[in-house]
Batch of 2 targets.
Target 1
Amino acid sequence: MTTPEPDFQTDRAALAGRLKMILPAHCLLVDDEDLRPYECDGLTAFRQLPLAVCLPESEAQVIDVLRTCHQLGVPVVARGAGTGLSGGAMPHAQGVVLSLARFNKILRVDRKARLAVVQPGVRNLAVSEAAAPFGLYYAPDPSSQIACTLGGNVAENSGGVHCLKYGLTVHNVLRIRVVSIEGEVFEIGSEAPDAPGYDLLALLIGSEGMLGVVTEVTVKLVPKPELAQVVMASFDDVARAGDAVADIIAAGIIPAGLEMMDKAATAAVEPFVKAGYDLRAAAILLCEADGTPEEVAEEIGRVTEVLRAAGARELRVSQSEAERLRFWAGRKAAFPAVGRITPDYYCMDGTIPRKRLAEMLSAIADMEHKYGLRCANVFHAGDGNLHPLIMYDAAKPGEWRWAEAFGAEILEMSVALGGSITGEHGVGIEKINQMCVQYKTPELEAFHRIKYAFDDKGLLNPGKAVPSLHRCAEYGRMHVHQGDLKFLELERF
Amino acid sequence: MTTPEPDFQTDRAALAGRLKMILPAHCLLVDDEDLRPYECDGLTAFRQLPLAVCLPESEAQVIDVLRTCHQLGVPVVARGAGTGLSGGAMPHAQGVVLSLARFNKILRVDRKARLAVVQPGVRNLAVSEAAAPFGLYYAPDPSSQIACTLGGNVAENSGGVHCLKYGLTVHNVLRIRVVSIEGEVFEIGSEAPDAPGYDLLALLIGSEGMLGVVTEVTVKLVPKPELAQVVMASFDDVARAGDAVADIIAAGIIPAGLEMMDKAATAAVEPFVKAGYDLRAAAILLCEADGTPEEVAEEIGRVTEVLRAAGARELRVSQSEAERLRFWAGRKAAFPAVGRITPDYYCMDGTIPRKRLAEMLSAIADMEHKYGLRCANVFHAGDGNLHPLIMYDAAKPGEWRWAEAFGAEILEMSVALGGSITGEHGVGIEKINQMCVQYKTPELEAFHRIKYAFDDKGLLNPGKAVPSLHRCAEYGRMHVHQGDLKFLELERF
């Protein structure tokens, strides 16, 4: 069984007429001018206007919209804040965008049970702010946490710099309320540790809007650690920095964060943020310990010992909360900082087994020559999650295609090294071809069967996340690296 | 769409003939005498002889057995060590038992990547033994860990006393190899932190043999902590002990284990194990800290402070590894110890939000009077996971029915308090009716759709884990508590 790739043909006027019957005027956009802000998410290279944007204010309205689209056979793309980087919220030309922006209430913070019940349009950071008076916070912290929403986090199974110790979204969500494409509401998960039956909670988290629309999220809150401190270590050699990461984990230490930036990244960041990074280093590591003061002192001691043994040239431990935040500010601003030194950049998100970090970095250096583009490297190193930032100029004809091919080669190398094509940004539209590299037919068929179980008409976010077998066959035929490169050469010159 | 409950009619001779063609003689049992050891698992109240037991030695043989059964429409029940407590491995009268007992090889222990690749018939404890030379171990530790296998752990998503800190099986498995009922092999998960596509790994873990047969498991290994110490605290009042558990968690401490036993449990254990428990206490707590000596000292200090403030009457900290193991020996022997003081006992496995522990204990005390049966209570308290042990005598006519009704009321009370009907033992055949209490129609329909996606003929472990909607309708009609009780009264007297 494979999900069909249906050829949707929507009668725009009929759709608008039906939506007007179920939504008040201020909850519905149908004019091109109003639709424009929704034409892309954070993956700005892919743009598409939808036929309509729905902004429901109640679960009943969500149900009505979904039922209507189901009846009419109209594609539905759910959208949070639109900060996603893989185009998961890019509209469908024949479809509706279902924005959850108005589901922005924090319904309950339970100090004793250490959980919060929130609507999906609540911003990630707002949850921690609401929990702060109780000494609690929500652990997953994607770089976009000021803007991104919990609903989007659930759809993408978002991580962040602290997910090495505190886990991804799937490890921090207890329960969700979901509306199916047929308008049926179900609740999955519970406040207790495990729920009987198949693990629908984990199945829905990270399903990129393909299986249902989330209308409520119950998240775990964790106690704010008394203290956190960061060690910054400089290395003369990128491979040595990669090995140091493996050494820390092998020593049985699970830091609260373990990040790496190469010289290209620190050089972009330092003039912008003045984080105090060592600009002579080939790479720096940032390693955070959190807990009670005793725990932190003990862990910092062990970490510095391992780093020194691994050949760190210089070590600095943050001496105040202000300094700690400055160290992190540089890391968190890496993307915009790179954005300042290049007209455009393309952010990748592959994962590899930690012990292959050095190998990957050397391969990326070779690819810079091959594609004639520079690349700055920022990693959630402890997780083996890489964010190479490929710099290019969209104004130069064909250069985007080169960046795209460079990115594809990084992802395929990730798979070859035993990793995966996405750590936390999702597949979306961006990495759908690489899914053909990641998986073989039996796994893809299992995905399609699950999709069919929830959405037999294939209306939820069509064309995203899971490629059809037909598409993979085509990709396999076309995808001969040297051939690609020749084609691109022709295009450029 | 609901999965049919098909009425299987197997031609025994034809089945045996086909199986003989694909398995060597020493891998196939068909005589009743040989089948007898497979008639039940740890839930001995439910017994059924299968038509055949297959003991394949290679994945190719597993594929052949599954393909054959799929062709003939014969039910298949996969089986590990048969230590399960919910009857998940109870045979089907018209079916085959597929034992993975001979898949008992540890294929690889990777010290640097901190993982092990094992076959599903490897015993849980054997993984830790193989990892011990590297200072590593496999964290989930069900009480049956000497005997139970990794395949069974994956099927049931097993926990153990350390899962509060280290997670359930689903948090400790990186990758599995699975054969579908149609004989297709797929691999899900990876050594990297997350995998793109729907989370099939979490979906398969805990699916109780209903979706596929696991032939290989890659597990995370964690460093053996340098030190572990246990605090034993006595309470005069069970409710106060329950509140102390909530206080520890609310203080931001995640102990390596946090267990509770009531007076009935300690009274059964102490003469048997001589663990040194305080027999005057209404309940005792065992709270373990692990880590470096500094971390342990710090955490033990904080825990004792919280326990004292919560009204603990007596506190003892283990002063040696021997004493720590003795404290745990009592807890781990609680089930057999209760088995010594009663002809039979029925072990429940409900979960509740931690803050409702005291309420639950008082309700169970009332039920003891109502059903005229004693109950000893052992808890994974930190998880809110209860194991009430209902004592009865199977030789007394009708007494099993009373125990069963007592157990059902505990589970339904767990759901009413916001918890669930199973923490770690699975649903199996035992709690299938309580699934009707736990879930409403939309959730059950989603389960059936997933089952259909993997096994459209419903051949894998039929009649387990997920009740049909028809069954739930019947159960709802019959299930009026007072009516039940009157019926049972009539039966007893």
Target 2
Amino acid sequence: MGYDTPLREYRFVLEELSGLSALLDCPGFQDLSVDLVRAVLEENARFVQSEIAPLNAAGDRSPARWLDGAVETPPGFRQAFSQYAQGGWQGLQHEAELGGQGFPKLVGTAAVENLNAANLSFSLCPLLTDGVIEALSTVGSEQQQALYIPPLIEGRWTGTMNLTEPQAGSDLSLLKTRAQPQPDGSYRLFGQKIFITFGEHDMAENIVHLVLARLPDAPPGVKGISLFIVPKFIVSADGSLGERNDVWCASLEHKLGIHGSPTAVMLYGSGKGEAGEGAVGYLVGEANRGLQYMFVMMNAARFAVGVQGVALAERATQQAWAYAAERLQGQGLEGPSKGPVPINRHPDVQRMLWTMRALADGGRALAAMAALARDLAHHHGNAEERGRQQALYEYLVPIVKGFCTENAVEAASLGVQVHGGMGYIEETGVAQYYRDARILPIYEGTTAIQANDLLGRKTWRDGGAVAHGLHRQMLATLDELATAAGRGGTHQAGLKVIARHMEPALQAYAQAVDYMLDQSSAPAAAFLGSVPYLMLSGVVLAGWQMARAALICTEALGDDGRGPQADDPFHAQKLAACVMYASQVLPRAPAHLASIIDGADVAGYASQASD
Amino acid sequence: MGYDTPLREYRFVLEELSGLSALLDCPGFQDLSVDLVRAVLEENARFVQSEIAPLNAAGDRSPARWLDGAVETPPGFRQAFSQYAQGGWQGLQHEAELGGQGFPKLVGTAAVENLNAANLSFSLCPLLTDGVIEALSTVGSEQQQALYIPPLIEGRWTGTMNLTEPQAGSDLSLLKTRAQPQPDGSYRLFGQKIFITFGEHDMAENIVHLVLARLPDAPPGVKGISLFIVPKFIVSADGSLGERNDVWCASLEHKLGIHGSPTAVMLYGSGKGEAGEGAVGYLVGEANRGLQYMFVMMNAARFAVGVQGVALAERATQQAWAYAAERLQGQGLEGPSKGPVPINRHPDVQRMLWTMRALADGGRALAAMAALARDLAHHHGNAEERGRQQALYEYLVPIVKGFCTENAVEAASLGVQVHGGMGYIEETGVAQYYRDARILPIYEGTTAIQANDLLGRKTWRDGGAVAHGLHRQMLATLDELATAAGRGGTHQAGLKVIARHMEPALQAYAQAVDYMLDQSSAPAAAFLGSVPYLMLSGVVLAGWQMARAALICTEALGDDGRGPQADDPFHAQKLAACVMYASQVLPRAPAHLASIIDGADVAGYASQASD
């Protein structure tokens, strides 16, 4: 099935929901305009739909192949990446002084979603390259930035993150890869890294690996980890490529999904490189602060993986909606007709279609809120506001990552269900989404890791300040809903449904935050509820954005159904999505709360799992 | 990973929770005893663990293959099925007068679960054969029963169900396959059937297809469908095999999972049979009552698919628990230790492990309640009670099918998550469960079809009588919980957690039933909530059984921790599962209710999916 970039929805989220126009008034965006953003996203849509989306199924059926150390990507990937690079898409959201185009993250996020919706496997290469660019531009030396960033932005080279080792996954304190200092100031790395996405491939001239390793005198644990640049081909001072480094792809994993994306086992220092034994590496920043630096890259990557979740939910949703409009089966509820009706006339199919739509749209609105906060944290004129927005962004990143990726699994599963038996046949294509989606809540930190972050660093550390602030803002939206519903009019019923579910959801959010603050000295009780706490937060915050969207839609449609944009079918459909989000998704918040507040009472029982 | 038949759990469910001993006092079971049942299940466990379970991963990697019309099953399947047949396992729950062993369905259900947990793909062949035996023993003529049932029970032949056609899936009124009467009283069938599980294979001498088709003068719709026996090889009056019939496997589907099970496209009447053009078929029962007859088989098969859900949840749960006990990662909550701890010490992993365990155990308890009802419906001495139990069984079948299969998908997904990145690698084996599980909420009637059945035939038709009766029984259990918790003692905290969640869950159940009864004239509003209604019913009814289990456990452990079975670690673990079910699963009931009672308010918005 084809994929249609939801351009109208992007416009709504950027312009109507997130205030793109106001953002572009901030310092640093003077060369941009709403019209330019529209034009860029339209061009992005054209390119992605025609060149990237058609490779998705083929990449699934012809996985990346390991051939004696080299890796052949699926048919068409190489050419497509070259076009992607030539189009300047890799630089879209990077700063102009580094060779990027300097668009806000809010805009970049739409382009990232679009690319991932078209082809998740392909998109992983640019996604990780973005992370390497962001890390080097933050913590790399001037020389490192000058040497590595421009070719990465130009798409001549690509980047990877090397964290995981067989014994060290979620727990990076167990890292063993070691870096030996050399007389010339460089290092030689020795070790094995696993699960390295696009660790080897044939789409670029060089690959820039960012690698976590230990120096000989490093303290144990996470405080003894340093960050290194290890290029596949050693880069001369003039930027030209030199000897083949001693870093090798030993094999590729045989995975459930994302077949088009090579997941490599990487060996550092096997002695086969032209440069001699040990992979030549260069320290980034100070020694032993590698994990801290990697967090820069990880935060960018975690946010982007959350957006992958939105993208996959969107893709699955589109295909389910299209199938349900075509597949004829069963009588309509109106009574016997002349023949079978499209299955989108059946209420239960509608429930599934809207739940998928609500999960995709809610996640997108949440991610946009986070992206906007990131942009304001860098561009707002007021320093205090920049600080507030940075805190908000950091609070939202684990929620975007955890909530949107778990939802992608749910949406993909519902997508199979809408297709019935046909969904289980690989040729239909929706089984691929179900397989692809399953990695999203795992890589770049499992949902549990995100939940630890939300609880430990983003709730306990600030005493719930960000969360309480959000709660106050959400209560204000609830008041607006009540006022709007009180006016009567065509959309009163929908607004009332939203308000009815928002109220207990907001209560649940406040209670969950306060319960968690109370449990800061009882970690077992708190961490038993950490993932439900993250999911509750996502349900409520995305629900808030959907409630805001509903208010915008009723304004556009008019109380009398004759508002300024009443002729545009978009707002009526969007309002339906908001109502269905409230009805089908918001009730999960009180359910999560009920599990969370059991923590202290059930911790003793739960711990019997380790008896 | 190996699979361990949970024999101790089976004993608990059969003997302690379901009252096996009392059941065996019913007429017809005089030759059976609790000890014999134990011995049979132990032998079943031994056989299944050693001969069937080891073929599961191989069947996934070497799918059934189509070879010019013939089908080669995966390595070992043929020999294993022969051993299965020789062991008499196909006849375990069938009546003695037909050549079966006459065990109660309660016992047969444990054996079915065990087989499916070991190897879902393999088990589909016996599962469908069971359905054909049940259908023919109910509606076949004496001659048909004598000719077909013994070889099916002996495992020399196997059976299939042929309903679906490309244009007729959930909606069987669209069936086109036609049956032409012949002068000798037989029929010739012409048409195409799809999604025919084990429609062709190499494990048996003959295959007995039960096929839905239309007679030339049949009325349109579901009232014009008749049921036919179409054997692969025509059977002579003496039971010997004759000519190859004109029924052919045209191809096999390329599926997301259950690779070991061939899913066939079947052609009836292509003219290539030795018997000439058209597949020779024999009418079962009366003309035009085929769908009604097929429901006999479907009810048996639907229940069995629900049990498949339990089985898959059990298998995924076992593997996750084993991995979590071995994988070392992270510090324990007690503070820094000498090294990493097994991940089952982390509260969030415990949450996942127990949620999986709760879903598997809760589903098993629910299925046992249904199986017991079926046994009592056939064997209870009192006719009125038989009627009550039959109504209960019929009420429970769609819930067992829908709830347990949706839970299998959730449990398999959690199982991948517990494994982290390793879960996404196919060699680990848990990705197979995630793929296999996804068919369960689809085949033998999607969850929506089950929900239609629960709502239309099992709630509206009897005015909620069965549901109201269950609600009264559940309130009595809630009273027992309060009394037991009031006694104080070691397990008071756990019982209080259960009671705390049971109360709103029971309220939600009662309110959902009453809401649905009120909406019987507003089908859109009701059917929007039909699947949530089914899931709510499953959550609450299985939760009730888990509450009963908790009461049994506290009795066994003793209020002072020195009860009659305090030394057996089983009851303490089981009690923990019951507490965690209450904490993690029961809160879903009020959330489902909140979605359900929106029906009338949101139906107008939802219907925009078909605009």
